[in-house]
Write a structure and sequence with these properties.
The complex is a heterodimer of chains A (368) and B (300).
Chain A: H1 17-40, H2 48-59, H3 68-102, H4 114-131, H5 149-168, H6 180-204, H7 210-218, H8 229-245, H9 247-255, H10 257-262, H11 267-289, H12 295-307, H13 311-335, H14 344-361
Helix pairs in contact in A: 1-13, 3-8, 3-9, 3-11, 3-12, 3-13, 4-5, 4-6, 4-11, 5-6, 5-11, 8-11, 8-13, 12-13, 12-14, 13-14
Chain B: H1 2-12, E1 16-27, E2 29-40, E3 43-48, H2 55-62, E4 70-75, E5 79-80, H3 86-92, E6 93-96, H4 108-113, H5 128-140, H6 156-169, E7 174-178, H7 186-202, E8 206-210, H8 214-220, E9 223-228, E10 231-237, H9 238-241, H10 244-251, E11 255-260, E12 264-269, H11 288-299
Parallel strand pairs in B: 3-8, 3-9, 6-7, 7-8
Antiparallel strand pairs in B: 1-2, 1-4, 4-5, 9-10, 11-12
Helix pairs in contact in B: 5-6, 6-7, 10-11
The chains are: A mainly alpha (368), B alpha/beta (300).
């Protein structure tokens, strides 16, 4: 064995706060760059300088003064870019959490059926809201006055799905959570089952906007952003912060539950908390965007290839990877066939599947 | 029972660091049926018993990885372990599990640093002091020169030493070792047992080791507990426990016992090449059934 001997104490590869902060800031910079590109591109080109000036004027309380570019920027492009970032960031972090928890690199909200469960919750809410005569503008995915109701319905869908996956996988008191292979298989089965229910419900309901519904089911960011985004925002940032606090415990659990117990982690409590939080943030964003595939799979992989398996650095960096990836994907989705728009889920799948195959076969991709 | 316990502590002179009282556990069938013992500081205790006798389960009950269905474990000052949080238990009891989790991306130093987890803040950022403790643990286990190597590069014996280093970094008064010398060449087994004994003395630990290697336990343990079918048949000084009669009763084999200085014993199975052992003649492959049958015959 050839080993480098006698390195300085700092070189032991221990993760420092400085390293986490540095990479997070660097990725934040990359996200801003992606944001600038995304705001620039579209049917109306908005030069970066102009966009920046408009944003600065708006932030300092100034009036855009009926500038047509300002209207496009503030009512369409910026909200959509921010929403896309938020959705992608959440799905990516939820994927990281599930993968670490189940010790399986294929676990992500989509594969585990959590996203599909959240869609079902959203669809059911929309149908019932319609029956109850609540204002449901534009059909599925856009609730009326109750801004909290839709994310809550999506979360319930997600949480019930997680519960069902858990039961199907045969989790019990003695074997909390079953084993991760069974959980994954149960998730895949339940996801395909729920997705047929979704299609059945949507086709049997007399809705005009079949195309919109269809897009939403694939994952779509083209709907106008309304007030329902605020609770989503709160849930996501709160949830991601909590996951960051749990990230060291999650590191220990991903080594093995017995080791984690020996090292003082209350495994059951942490696992339950991570499950619930990851389901909440998935449910919250799916209620807005629909289930978008591959983000929760690709972004954590990318993070692990660059930074290793430590969740303390993965949570903040994968959050930003998710934001950047989805922002760029959505920018492509709304421009590549302009003036027609693709749902972002198609772009993430088209980009994600080959990327994932590449990662599987690359040397470092197997490091998980 | 109190008399037995008093005798147990009296023999070592040290105070009890851990006391197990009437531990019970069953999973479909009874696995541990009311086991009691004490572990003293500065002492290596070995648990001896055939496969399926409940040795490993006892260890897991002590650390509360499995909560016992009956009985209780008391720590220093009579603190019942069930009243402690997981993190607090991890500051009292360290354990080297049989198949510890290893991830490829970790270095030796990082792996040992995990032992500091119960002492660190929520996010697990370590201080210079923690680093010092980990370096000392690597020093004691002779792993200092591998500190920046990947865990996957280590040999089997080195990995076991690393498991021990992580447990030492936990800085606990009690150390539990599960099949610590399994699957290693005999020279590594001796080296590891010597290391465990020396560290136990140096750090005044209460060490409990589960092993199939009766001879190693006879040579390096101070005390022994003989377990069969979930019960502690006898316990005490290693020479009192590892006797021909006791071992024959449990394993159904003849043993040659030689007393060594310092109350230790050399224990060797007398291997018969008769076909009566029901084996292919080498005698070393006596199956579980073969070991268990004599016990049933003698016990009941």
């Amino acid at each position: 064995m050839n080993l480098p001997a006698g390195k300085a104490a700092q070189s032991s590869g221990a993760l420092s706060k400085t390293k986490i902060a540095a990479f997070t800031l660097a990725l934040l910079g990359a996200w801003l760059l992606a944001l600038a590109v995304s705001l620039n591109i579209g049917s109306v080109r908005i030069p970066v300088g102009k966009a920046l000036a408009l944003v600065l004027r708006r932030l300092s309380g100034g009036d855009a003064g009926g500038d047509p570019m300002a209207a496009v920027l503030f009512s369409v492009r910026l909200p959509r870019a921010l929403l896309g970032s938020l959705v992608g960031a959440s799905l990516a972090v939820a994927g990281t959490a599930f993968q670490s928890l189940l010790r399986n690199p294929l676990a992500d909200p989509y594969v585990l059926g959590v996203s599909t469960g959240a869609s079902l919750g959203t669809i059911l809410y929309s149908i019932f809201a319609g029956w109850l005569g609540l204002a449901v503008a534009g059909g599925v995915g856009v609730g009326g006055g109750f801004v909290f109701a839709r994310p809550v319905a999506a979360f319930l869908g997600a949480a019930l799905t997680v519960g069902a996956v858990y039961v199907i996988a045969g989790g019990s008191r003695r074997r909390p959570g079953g084993d991760s292979q069974r959980l994954l298989l149960a998730g895949i089965v339940l996801a395909s089952f729920l997705s047929s229910i979704n299609v059945f419900l949507l086709t049997s309901v007399n809705q005009a906007d079949i195309r919109g519904i269809f897009y939403w089911l694939i994952g779509d960011l083209s709907r106008p952003v309304d007030a329902s985004v605020y609770p989503v925002l709160g849930l996501v940032f709160g949830g991601v912060f909590l996951l960051f606090l749990l990230s060291h415990n999650l590191n220990l659990i991903s080594l093995g539950e017995e080791d984690a117990l020996i090292l003082g982690v209350d495994v059951r409590k942490v696992k339950t908390a991570v499950y619930v939080i990851a389901s909440v943030i998935t449910g919250a964003v799916v209620s807005v965007s629909g289930p978008i595939a591959y983000i929760g799979l690709i972004c954590p992989h990318l993070g692990r290839m660059m930074f290793g398996g430590d969740n303390r650095i993965l949570v903040p960096t994968v959050f930003l990877f998710g934001a950047i990836f989805t922002l760029l994907a959505d920018t492509l989705a709304r421009t590549v066939l302009s003036p027609a728009e693709l749902p972002v889920g198609i772009v993430t799948a088209l980009a994600g599947a080959p990327l994932f195959i590449y990662l599987l076969h690359s040397k470092r991709g197997s490091s998980l | 029972m109190t008399a037995i316990l008093a005798a147990t502590t009296g023999a070592d002179g040290g105070g009890a660091m851990l006391e197990a009282r009437d531990l019970r556990f069953d999973y479909r069938r009874p696995i541990v049926k009311g086991v009691s013992f004490r572990l003293a500081a500065g002492t290596v205790t070995g648990i001896v018993g055939p496969n399926g006798s409940g040795k490993t389960t006892i260890l897991r009950l002590l650390d509360r990885i499995l909560p016992p269905l009956g009985g209780e474990v008391y720590l220093r000052g009579g603190v019942p372990i069930s009243s402690l949080k997981r993190r607090e238990i991890a500051r009292e009891i360290a354990m080297v599990p049989q198949n510890g989790g290893v991830s490829d991306y970790q270095t030796v130093f990082q792996f040992a640093m995990q032992g500091r987890a119960p002492h660190l803040s929520r996010l697990g950022f370590e201080s210079a002091e923690d680093e010092g403790i980990v370096l000392e643990a690597l020093e004691m286990t002779a792993l200092t020169r591998y500190r920046d190597a990947r865990v996957s590069e280590l040999s089997g014996g080195e990995r076991q030493r690393l498991g021990l280093a992580r447990a030492l970094a936990q800085d606990t008064p009690i150390l539990l070792l599960d099949e610590f010398t399994a699957n290693l060449d005999v020279n590594y087994q001796v080296e590891l047992m010597r290391l465990v004994r020396d560290i136990t003395r140096r750090k005044n630990l209460a060490t409990l080791i589960v092993s199939h290697e009766i001879n190693l336990l006879g040579a390096f343990c101070d005390r022994a507990i003989l377990v069969a079918q979930g019960e502690a048949l006898c316990q005490g000084g290693v020479a009192e426990v590892l006797t021909r009669e006791n071992l024959r009763r449990v394993f159904g084999l003849d043993f040659s016992i030689r007393h060594l200085p310092g109350g230790k014993v050399e224990v060797l199975p007398v291997i018969s090449t008769d076909d009566a052992t029901g084996d292919d003649g080498c005698g070393c492959g006596v199956g579980d059934a073969g070991r268990m049958r004599p016990l049933l015959a003698v016990g009941k």
